[in-house]
Design a protein that fits this description.
Carbamate kinase, eight-stranded mixed β-sheet, alpha/beta, 20% strand, binds adenosine-5'-diphosphate, single chain, 2 domains
Length: 266
């Protein structure tokens, strides 16, 4: 089994407040996945981020922050707006994948997962296994869920990766984003950023700055934290640049691709 994440940064204009899909990237990625599956069958789960669809409403309504009971009506609408926005992005993703001939089926986190203090504590993955057994590709994405402590919260695609991998024990966990992997500082704002082939400790970062100012789920730092949880369980993951043509195809085919392996080993 392979768990593949496609970052919101690839699918949308994450820096913008507009909900616009990068249809070209989406189509290319769909065709790379199809080409690999045509070569040999692989059990695949796809996770995608929320990008510019999910982050603005989540930020506007401060989903995940504690609130007074009197604010509930507004928070509830914020939850619905965010859930609907990420569902729209998912629809575009699934549409592009189905057009390419990929048997994807959406399994939204908001419909079956709950969290406690922003961490997923319930989410029966039997349905995933059933879909996989019948040859489908389940697709899950960054979403809002009910929270036993905070009432509602945001769950990032990166946390979903951690939860799925921890519970399903895949052979490979791959995260496609818009940079080559992890650097000691943000490569988009620092020309002298140094690249890591392997990454094993958050202390190797020079700064804990996130990504864009609209990202409510932690950007690269949030991603690394989730992947280090997995590394602690002995599950290795790899971050690669999904903007580079053929990288997704190659990584699915086990070919060499530049990227950062997150593991606790040396
Ligand atoms: P995605 O939406 O693809 O999951 P994010 O936007 O959350 O990805 O995170 C990727 C972004 O993190 C990159 O575009 C980069 O600008 C930023 N970033 C911040 N710090 C780092 C770092 N130390 N190494 C790599 N990227 C970083």
């Amino acid at each position: 089994m392979i768990i593949l994440k496609i970052g919101g940064s690839i699918l949308t204009e994450k820096d913008s407040n507009e909900s616009e899909v990068d249809t070209k990237s989406l189509k290319r990625i769909a065709s790379e996945i199809k080409a690999s599956l045509d070569k040999s069958f692989k059990e695949l789960i796809i996770v995608h981020g929320a990008g510019s669809f999910g982050h603005p409403p989540a930020k506007k309504y401060r989903i995940g922050e504690e609130f007074d009971k009197s604010e509930y009506p507004e928070k509830r609408i914020g939850f619905c707006e965010t859930q609907n926005a990420v569902k729209k992005l998912n629809m575009y993703v699934c549409e592009a994948f189905i057009e390419e001939g990929l048997p994807v089926v959406a399994v939204p986190a908001s419909s079956f997962m709950t969290a406690t203090n922003k961490r997923i504590t319930h989410g029966d993955l039997d349905q995933f296994k059933k879909y996989l057994n019948k040859g489908f590709i389940p697709v899950i994405y960054g979403d809002v869920v009910l929270d036993d402590e905070l009432e509602i919260c945001v769950i990032s695609g990166d946390q979903l990766i951690q939860y799925l991998a921890m519970n399903l024990n895949p052979e490979s966990v791959i995260l496609g984003t818009d940079v080559d992997g992890v650097y000691n500082k943000n490569p988009k704002t620092h020309d002298d950023a140094m690249f890591f082939d392997k990454f094993s400790s958050i202390e190797d970062l020079d700064t804990l700055e996130g990504t864009t100012n609209i990202d409510v789920t932690g950007g690269m730092v949030g991603k690394i934290k989730e992947l280090l949880y997995l590394a602690d369980l002995g599950i290795e993951s790899k971050i690669i640049n999904a903007e580079v043509e053929n990288n997704i195809y190659k990584v699915l085919e086990n070919e060499k691709v530049k990227g950062t392996v997150i593991s606790r080993g040396n």
